[in-house]
Write a structure and sequence with these properties.
By secondary structure, this protein is of the alpha/beta class. It has helices spanning 6-12, 30-36, 52-72, 85-100, 105-109, 125-136, 154-160, 183-197, 224-227, 276-314, 341-350, 370-374, 379-383, 396-415; strands spanning 18-19, 79-82, 116-120, 140-144, 165-171, 208-212, 231-235, 246-250, 319-321, 331-335, 353-354, 385-389. The strands form 3 sheets. Strands 2-8-7-6-5-3-4 form a 7-stranded mixed β-sheet, with helices on both faces. Strand 6 (208-212), helix 9 and strand 7 form a beta-alpha-beta unit. The longest helix is centred in the C-terminal third of the chain and has 39 residues, at 276-314. The protein starts with 5 loop residues before the first helix and ends with a helix.
Length: 416
C-alpha cells in the first residue's frame, strides 16, 4: 500500500500549505532527526543489556537524562522517561495515589483516610479523566473555577487547601487559549500551607505540586526550583521532537507507584525497554528549544499580536479568548459569534491552511470546548472558537494570506 502525505496532497493540487496548528503537534526538527537516526538501525541495543551494544544504548540514555536534568535544573535521577505527555501525567497523579493511599473505597470513605486533590476546570483531558477515575475510587476532587481570561485565582486555591489535600495539579499554560497560570505564586502558597499545618508524611510535606508543562516547554522557564514544583510533565511532540515520548520530573523524596509493570526500567517507575531514539530526540529538542527560546518567543509574540489585531479589525465582532498578555507567544484563540468553528476549519483547509477548534485529541467530538465553557461562555459561543497556533515555520506572509482567507470565509458563512 502506498501512503500519501498531507504535503503531497497539497502539492498535487497546487495549493498553498500553511500550518497554524503547532499546539497540536510540531514537525520534527532536522537536527533532532539526525541525532535519532543511529538508534533506529545501527545502535539498536537494549540499554538493559550488558554487552557493548547495550552499554552504548545505556550511555545514550543517561546522556539524554543529563541533558533534560540540566534544563530543568534538577538531578538526573529525578527524570523519568515515559511514552507520552499523557503517560507522564498519569504516572504523576495515579502513581502518587497508588503509593500512599491505595484504592479501597471503604477505607477512603472514612474521615481519617479521605484524600483530597485540587485541579482546575480547564485542564487537558489527560488530567481531567484521571481525576474522574479517582473520584470513582473515592477520592474527593476540587475543580477550581478560572476567571473570564482563564486565570486561576491563587487566593481561591489557598482557600481550597485542606490538611488532607495530597496533590495540586495545575496546567502551566493552557493548550487551547494559551493562558499562562501563576505557577510560581501557587507554588509559594502550597509551601506556606505545608508549613502552617505541619503535615509531613515523608521527606517532603504534602500536598505535592504537579504541573502539566507540555505546552509551556519551549517558551517558558522550566527551572523546577524557581517554579516550586514537585512533579512536572513534558512531551516531545510539542517541541519539534518525536511523538511517543515524554518525561516526568519527580522531586527526590516524592514516592510514586509504577502504573506499568514489567522489567522495572526507569528506576522501577516505567517498565518497558526504553525508546532510545525517542528519548535522545526529546533531549535534543529540549536543548534546541532552550537555546532559541528568547529570540523565537519574541518573534512569535510579535506575529501573534499582529494577527490578533488584524482579526479584530477585519471581523469587528470577533473576540479573543484567554488573557491579553499572560499567554503563550504562539497562541491566538478567537471566537466568531454565529459561526461554527468546525466549518471555518474545513473551509480554511480547502485553502491549504491548517488550524483547529481546540485540543487535537478532542477534534472529532461534537461537544464544545470545556475550556471555553469554563470561561463563562455559552455553548454556541464555544462552538465558534478557533485556535491559531504559530511556530518556527510561520511568517507574516502566511498570516496575511490566512487573514484574507479567514475574513472571506466568515463573510461567506454569514451569507448562508
Amino acid at each position: 500500500m502506498e501512503f500519501i502525505s498531507y504535503f503531497d496532497i497539497r502539492i498535487s493540487n497546487f495549493m498553498k500549505e500553511i500550518y497554524l496548528d503547532y499546539a497540536a503537534t510540531t514537525p520534527l526538527d532536522p537536527q533532532v532527526k539526525k541525532v535519532m537516526e543511529p538508534y533506529w538501525s545501527n545502535d539498536f541495543g537494549n540499554p538493559s543489556s550488558i554487552h557493548s551494544l547495550g552499554r552504548a544504548a545505556k550511555i545514550a540514555l543517561e546522556g539524554a537524562r543529563k541533558t533534560v536534568a540540566k534544563i530543568f535544573q534538577c538531578r538526573s535521577l529525578e527524570i523519568v522517561f515515559t511514552g507520552s505527555g499523557t503517560e507522564s501525567i498519569n504516572l504523576a497523579i495515579f502513581g502518587l495515589c497508588r503509593t500512599k493511599f491505595g484504592t479501597n473505597r471503604a477505607e477512603l470513605s472514612t474521615a481519617q483516610n479521605r484524600r483530597h486533590i485540587i485541579t482546575t476546570k480547564i485542564e487537558h483531558h489527560a488530567v481531567l479523566n484521571v481525576m474522574r477515575a479517582l473520584e470513582k475510587e473515592g477520592y474527593e476532587i476540587t475543580y477550581l473555577d478560572v476567571d473570564k481570561n482563564g486565570l486561576v485565582n491563587p487566593k481561591k486555591l489557598k482557600s481550597a487547601l485542606r490538611p488532607e489535600t495530597i496533590l495540586v495539579s495545575i496546567m502551566y499554560a493552557n493548550n487551547e487559549i494559551g493562558t499562562v497560570e501563576p505557577i510560581v505564586e501557587i507554588g509559594r502558597i502550597i509551601k506556606e500551607h505545608r508549613r502552617t499545618i505541619n503535615y509531613k508524611l515523608s521527606t517532603i510535606s504534602y500536598p505535592y505540586f504537579h504541573i502539566d508543562a507540555c505546552q509551556a516547554a519551549g517558551y517558558l522557564d522550566l527551572n523546577v526550583e524557581k517554579l516550586g514544583v514537585d512533579l512536572m510533565s513534558v512531551n516531545g511532540s510539542k517541541i519539534y521532537g518525536p511523538k511517543g515520548v515524554g518525561a516526568l520530573y519527580v522531586r527526590s523524596g516524592v514516592k510514586l507507584e509504577s502504573i506499568i509493570y514489567g522489567g522495572g526500567q526507569e528506576n522501577g517507575l516505567r517498565s518497558g525497554t526504553e525508546n532510545i531514539a525517542g528519548i535522545v530526540g526529546l533531549a535534543k529538542a529540549l536543548e534546541i528549544a532552550q537555546k532559541i527560546k528568547e529570540k523565537e518567543s519574541a518573534r512569535l509574540a510579535e506575529l501573534r499580536d499582529y494577527f490578533i489585531r488584524e482579526v479584530l479589525t477585519l471581523i469587528p465582532d470577533a473576540v479573543l479568548n484567554g488573557h491579553q498578555t499572560e499567554r503563550l507567544p504562539n497562541n491566538a484563540n478567537i471566537s466568531i459569534p454565529g459561526i461554527e468553528g468546525d466549518a471555518v476549519v474545513l473551509y480554511l483547509d480547502e485553502k491549504g491552511i491548517a488550524v483547529s477548534t481546540g485540543a487535537a485529541c478532542s477534534a472529532t467530538s461534537l461537544e464544545p470546548s470545556h475550556v471555553i465553557l469554563a470561561l463563562g461562555k455559552s455553548r454556541e459561543y464555544a462552538l465558534g472558537s478557533l485556535r491559531f497556533s504559530f511556530g518556527r515555520g510561520t511568517t507574516k506572509k502566511d498570516l496575511d494570506y490566512t487573514l484574507k482567507s479567514f475574513a472571506e470565509i466568515v463573510r461567506l458563512l454569514r451569507r448562508r
